[in-house]
Design brief:
The complex is a heterotrimer of chains A (431), B (291) and C (297).
Chain A: H1 4-20, E1 38-43, H2 46-52, H3 55-62, E2 66-71, H4 73-85, E3 93-96, H5 98-108, H6 115-120, H7 131-136, E4 138-139, E5 142-143, E6 146-151, E7 153-158, H8 171-181, E8 189-192, H9 197-210, E9 216-217, E10 220-221, H10 226-242, H11 252-260, E11 264-270, H12 274-278, E12 289-292, E13 306-313, H13 320-330, H14 333-341, H15 349-353, H16 355-359, H17 363-375, H18 387-403, H19 407-427
Parallel strand pairs in A: 1-2, 1-3, 8-11
Antiparallel strand pairs in A: 3-13, 4-5, 6-13, 7-11, 7-12, 9-10
Helix pairs in contact in A: 8-10, 9-10, 9-18, 10-18, 18-19
Chain B: H1 14-17, H2 29-53, H3 57-60, H4 74-81, H5 85-116, H6 120-131, H7 135-147, H8 154-178, H9 182-190, H10 195-206, H11 208-224, H12 227-232, H13 240-244, H14 255-285
Chain C: H1 3-39, H2 58-64, H3 70-100, H4 106-118, H5 121-131, H6 138-145, H7 157-185, H8 190-197, H9 202-230, H10 234-240, H11 253-262, H12 267-295
The chains are: A alpha/beta (431), B mainly alpha (291), C mainly alpha (297).
Chain lengths: 431, 291, 297
């Protein structure tokens, strides 16, 4: 009886049945079982490039095929979000950002507990990892990940353009020199740095700490304090008066080519990517680039020293043992030392103490890095579950400053918002 | 080009202008300038893309080397050496062709039914799909297809692309079918054709122009679809737009590699345009309904 | 064949022709629609499986009273769509009229015209990002040659949305042209010939004869393009990144909903924004089709 109403009713009923009959809980679905291929998801990063070459070795050792996916950091987040929400078992080893995703993923129950694994294997030496890094991947006493890369900000500068060929030691000196050498008409910017809100917050944290501020103080907002306002004002002025146009759209990918093509005198960004600044294939000024420690602010030189990336195991993986074997192999003393010698700064103290590995970095960079490790702060963003929103809140005064708007007002407003946010976020923290 | 056209369309524009105008006859300067301007505006950025594909990243940023520079093939090497590009292209082709063909089979009859019989209200349901933002579909779909163990294979990609193509083709074709005079089909009925036969033998051939346009567009959208592929594809079924982002790494955008990949990605599509264009031209000028 | 059996046969046929497409669509959207509607009434956060409480319509009232992100996103969506589609329609029609009568080399112009719309949106986005890059891009260099100071384009808060509109116009005008050309070719010639004989000028013929006849195709193209423009995502994501830029200057509703889902993991709020967004689109489509129904009694 094909009349219109009948058909519509049937279609509607069928659709409704189908949709309500499928509760969104994880069911057992196979992705190859315990002996299947190991699926590793990695971010586009210098560490990934370095480890990829060696993965065939691991494949032979473990007698197991390894399927590697690489993508940008944003795509990685989206992918994890979708897959882990559906309790997907088709990812085993995940590269993630302990400072961005740790709390959220742990709270969601998406990460496997590695506490026993890291401490029970002889020769692995979990204590060899930098204490601050270890803390970052531990939540409520449980270890959820192993850090593979650590980063600190470093001052990249043009030896041929700065007075005496020496980098400024204080933020005030940096500002003064950058403004003096800023000559946009001739294609030379005094300073390039991140201005894109979310990305800039992490770099900005060093300035904040060096002015004596902090994102949060005792569960309350710290961005409305005079020190924080001073930091916001400094960074904004620096970019406004000595920086390139379009700064608020710039992240690391835009900064690197500007400096590499000789159009900037100073840049401050992560040290892990120093190769892009000096490699002759990508840089015109590699031979003239120097590395300095993060300049000191009123509260001293307080850059961050964080594990930017780590490896973890999907809680829904069917091959946790194999996944752990991969992680153990990729983060062993020998491997980290080898990668360090290739210029990838890792998280193991032994690698940092090894003079041969350290010698592979340009000497002034090595000096800057070791200095930062001593004085570094272990976080570069607010320590909350919902990092995305927090970053946007604390980034707003930063953008206002870069654009020349009223910083004090923006900071006060952001501070209020952050306080309200922290209350909500605290409720989400249960692991 | 005009050899197979019915007489009525043999010399379009003849009567309207009051003087004969053959293709290639003198056209007004204004029109010529206009056409050249159009051609330049739409080609210039793409020419830039192709030029950049042959430059190193340093050369790209150097305006002095905008047009005259020593080309390099390194970018193309980078694109291929990762072994990702060709498989991705194959995947894009497979998914594109299959989804477009299946979508046309579903959509063209549906469009005829809606356009011919003015079934607007019901027709809206098919078009609703165009309106739903893809973001609201991603997580539920991923879950649904994971339950059916279809994630990462071609099936889920084809289905998700069909979800975009079916409404698209339907939407375009409704207008074409609605514009066909009913008398033509009725004449066929009088001659003894069944209702379905009238559709098949009379309306469908007349709508070839629209069908071709609609299918080309559907195939294009499938080729370019990014969001679905990002989430629903697996290692072996990754399509080209997703593979493009391999060139955006942590610290720098490999402009040269990116432009090389984009260029390569556009080559098959441009070729398809050149050949598909013939269908469009023949269809468009093949004397559509004239009274 | 009697009238009634003819009608019955037609009725059976039309449903048989329509059903496969209809069922396919309904099957694909049923679950997501119901699920999104459900989520929008909860405070789902972090993981969709995690414990969540029923909130009724709180998410909706939160979204609708949010003047910081929601309403500006609505405004940007409306502005972007209206400006882009209007420009695309006008330019598309102009180019279609230009190419309507055959001329030598016509095939090549048509092929050229097809390339921007065939190009992958994310690739187009990245290409324009390169061309308009304030420091290494060629656009500022060219502007400099005629004495205009370098512009931030996509790097500035004020210039971003207009720049995105222009990029969208560049990419999609050819599609309008294509559809309108197909429509123009199907038009009967007599009315225009008659108008010419009656002494109407070119512009009068265009405005009073061609355009009204072309109206169904114009409306179809308009609706088609508008729905896509409202949902523009790839372009904004590729050029401005998450959140539509540092001051959310390019954050349209789609970008906002994506951000809520993937950057903030606030699924409940995201679902309510998506519901509101869908309603918004539906209203626009209905309005446009009412307009078209007026033209076709």
């Amino acid at each position: 009886m094909l009349n219109r109403r009948g058909l519509l009713k049937a279609a509607g009923a069928g659709a409704l049945l189908a949709s309500t009959g499928l509760p969104l809980t994880g069911c057992g679905r196979s992705a190859g079982g315990p002996d299947g291929d190991l699926r590793v998801v990695l971010a586009n990063h210098v560490w990934t490039t370095a480890i990829r070459k060696r993965i065939p070795e691991f494949s032979d050792l473990a007698r197991r095929r390894v399927l590697v996916s690489t993508m940008t950091a944003d795509q990685l987040s989206s992918t994890y979000n979708v897959k882990l929400n559906a309790s997907a078992p088709d990812v085993d080893v995940m590269m993630y950002r302990p400072l961005q995703e740790q709390l959220l993923f742990a709270r969601n129950g998406w990460l496997a507990d590695l506490t026993d694994r890291v401490s029970s294997q002889p020769g692995y030496d979990w204590a060899d990892f930098q204490p601050a890094s270890r803390e970052r991947t531990t939540v409520a006493g449980k270890v959820f990940g192993v850090p593979v890369v650590t980063e600190r900000p470093t001052l990249y500068y043009r030896r041929d353009l700065v007075p005496d060929g020496r980098p400024p030691a204080t933020l005030a000196a940096l500002f003064e020199t950058a403004v003096r050498l800023h000559n946009p008409v001739a294609g030379q910017y005094g300073f390039v740095g991140r201005g894109q809100r979310a990305a800039a917050v992490s770099m900005f944290s060093s300035y904040l700490y060096s002015f004596g501020g902090a994102f949060t103080v005792d569960q309350h907002s710290g961005v409305g304090t005079p020190e924080a306002i001073a930091a916001y004002q400094y960074y904004g002025r620096l970019l406004r008066e000595a920086g390139p146009i379009g700064a608020t759209n710039m992240s690391l990918e835009q900064i690197t080519p500007i400096f590499a093509q000789g159009k900037a005198v100073f840049a401050i960004d992560a040290d892990a990517v120093y190769r892009n600044f000096i490699d002759p294939a990508t840089s015109l000024v590699g031979d003239r680039t120097g590395f300095g420690a993060f300049p000191a602010g009123p509260a001293g030189s307080r850059p961050f020293n964080v594990p930017s990336w780590g490896l973890t195991i999907n809680a829904f993986s069917e091959r946790r043992d194999a996944a752990w074997e991969f992680i153990r192999w990729a983060t062993s003393r020998e491997m980290v030392l080898a990668l360090q010698a290739e210029g990838v700064p890792g998280a193991r103290l032994s690698a940092w103490r090894d003079p041969a590995a350290l010698a592979k970095f340009p000497p002034d960079l090595a000096a800057s890095m070791t200095a930062s490790i001593q004085t570094g702060v272990g976080a570069d963003r607010p320590d909350v579950v919902q990092v995305g929103r927090a970053r946007d809140i604390v980034g707003r005064p930063l953008v206002a400053s870069i654009l020349g708007a009223d910083v004090a007002a923006a900071a006060a407003d952001a501070s209020q918002q952050l306080d309200a946010f922290l209350v909500r976020d605290a409720r989400q923290r249960k692991i | 080009m005009t050899a197979t056209l019915p007489k009525s369309a043999a010399a379009p524009g003849t009567a309207a202008r009051g003087r004969p105008r053959r293709a290639g006859a003198r056209m007004s300067t204004g029109r010529l300038v206009g056409i050249v301007a159009v051609a330049v505006v739409f080609t210039a950025p793409l020419v830039w893309m192709v030029l950049a594909a042959f430059k190193t990243n340093v050369q790209i940023g150097n305006p002095a080397e905008a047009v005259v520079f020593t080309p390099t093939l390194r970018n193309f090497g980078t694109v291929f050496e990762q072994g990702v590009f060709l498989p991705a292209m194959l995947n894009s082709v497979i998914v594109g062709v299959v989804s477009t063909v299946l979508s046309a089979i579903l959509a063209v009859p549906a469009a005829w039914a809606i356009g011919r019989f003015a079934m607007q209200r019901v027709g809206n349901w098919v078009l609703i799909a165009r309106i739903i933002p893809a973001v609201s579909l991603l997580v539920p779909w991923y879950y649904l297809f994971a339950q059916l163990e279809l994630v990462g294979g071609y099936t889920v990609l084809v289905l998700s692309h069909m979800f975009v193509s079916v409404p698209l083709i339907t939407w375009i074709m409704i207008g074409f079918f609605a514009g066909l005079p009913v008398e033509l089909e009725e004449a066929g009925r009088v001659d003894g054709l069944s209702a379905f036969g009238a559709f098949l033998r009379i309306s469908l051939p007349l709508a070839t122009a629209g069908t071709a346009t609609a299918c080309v567009l559907a195939a294009v959208f499938s080729w370019n679809n990014f969001m679905f592929a990002l989430i629903l594809s697996g290692e072996n079924t990754k399509t080209l737009p997703v593979a493009l982002f391999n060139f955006i790494s942590y610290a720098s955008v490999d402009w040269g590699g990116l432009m090389a990949a984009a260029t390569l990605m556009s080559v098959p599509v441009v070729l398809a345009a050149v050949f598909g264009q013939k269908y469009l031209v023949a269809g468009l000028t093949a004397g559509a309904t004239k009274g | 064949m009697t009238a009634t059996t003819l009608r019955q046969e037609q009725r059976r046929l039309k449903w048989a022709m329509l059903s496969p497409a209809l069922l396919f669509i309904l099957a694909m959207i049923a679950f997501p629609l119901v699920y999104t509607a459900y989520l929008s009434t909860t405070d789902a956060f972090g993981a969709v499986n995690a414990h969540r409480s029923f909130l009724g319509l709180t998410n909706f009232s939160d979204a609708l009273s949010d003047t910081r992100r929601f309403w500006p996103a609505v405004a940007r969506t409306a502005v972007f769509t209206a400006a882009a589609v209007a420009l695309e329609l006008c330019l598309g029609l102009a180019v279609a009229m230009l190419l309507r009568r055959p001329f030598g080399g016509m095939r090549w112009v048509r092929t050229i015209l097809m390339v921007p719309l065939l190009a992958t949106p994310v690739a187009v986005g990245v290409l324009w990002l390169l061309i308009l890059d304030p420091t290494v891009g060629i656009a500022n260099h060219l502007l400099g040659l005629v004495g205009i100071p370098p512009q931030p384009f996509l790097g500035s808060v004020a210039e971003s949305l207009p720049t995105l509109i222009l990029i969208d116009v560049w990419q999609w005008t050819p599609m309008m042209t294509l559809l309108l050309l197909a429509g123009l070719s199907a038009l009967p010639e007599e009315p225009e010939e008659a108008a010419l004989i009656d002494g109407a000028s070119g512009w009068q013929r265009f405005r009073l004869v061609t355009v009204p006849m072309l109206m169904p195709v114009i409306i179809t193209s308009l609706v088609l393009r508008s729905v896509d423009a409202l949902k523009t995502f790839d372009l904004i994501y590729a050029t401005k990144g998450p959140g539509g830029g540092s001051s959310n200057e390019a954050e349209t509703l789609n970008v906002y909903a994506y951000g809520l889902t993937f950057d903030y993991q606030e699924y409940g709020l995201a679902a309510s924004v998506l519901v509101l967004f869908t309603v918004f689109i539906v209203l626009i489509v209905i309005a446009l089709r009412r307009r078209s129904a007026k033209d076709q009694p």
